[in-house]
Amino acid sequence: MSSSDFRPIVYLKDRCPWCLKFRLFLLESGLRGHFDFREFVPGDDREAAIREELAPHFAKPSFPTVQIAPGIYMRESDDLIAHYAAAHGVEMDDLPTLDQYIRGPLVRIAELRAEIAELRG
User: Fold this and answer.
1) What is the mean pLDDT of residues 37-58?
2) C-alpha dihedral over 38, 90, 87, 79, to 10 degrees?
3) DSSP state of 75
4) How many CB atoms are located within 10 Å of the residue 65 CB?
5) Which helix (DSSP H) or strand (DSSP E) does residue 86 occupy?
6) What DSSP element (H or E) covers 15?
């Protein structure tokens, strides 16, 4: 496959709030069709293969991750959104659903995760 034929590959974990954030960005911006997706449910047959594929590129794979070019990987939903918004001229003000998710449920999810971590600590 030549680099001109390359389609970025998105690696997503089921029920991951940051994966949903990136997925919402792709859907609302109209970019979803530019990507191939590899998704897994924790514990399913695909998880080990995906983690094995990403392991050489990161000390600890996290999600979402995108192979942005052959052999080049990027992760972190904010970084991915900024990268593709800039590359495709997407204005974040034009994505109200993503904005509502980030300012609403995602804030609460982060608060709950911090509270759980504190209780465990």
Assistant:
1) 96
2) -60
3) E
4) 26
5) helix 77-88
6) none
53-66 pLDDT per residue, tens: 999 999 999 999 99
Q: Which residues pair with 12 in a beta bridge?
A: 39
pTM, two decimal places? 0.91
Sign of the C-alpha dihedral computed for residues 48, 49, 50 and 54 taken in this order: positive
Is the Cβ–Cβ distance between 19 and 63 less than 8 Å? Answer: yes
| Averaged pLDDT, 33-45 | 97
Angstrom CA distances, 118 to 18, 106, 108, 111, 114, stand at 21, 18, 15, 11, 6
Instruction: Kindly give, in sequence order, each residue whose CB lies less than 8 Å from that of residue 76, ignoring residues fewer than 6 positions away.
Output: 18, 62
Residue in 114, 92, 116 with CA at minimum distance from that of residue 103: 92
Report whether 74 contacts 83 (CB < 8 A).
Answer: yes
Contact call for residues 110 and 78 (beta carbons, < 8 A): no
Residue 3 — pLDDT band, cuts 50, 70, 90? low
Secondary structure (3-state) at 63: coil
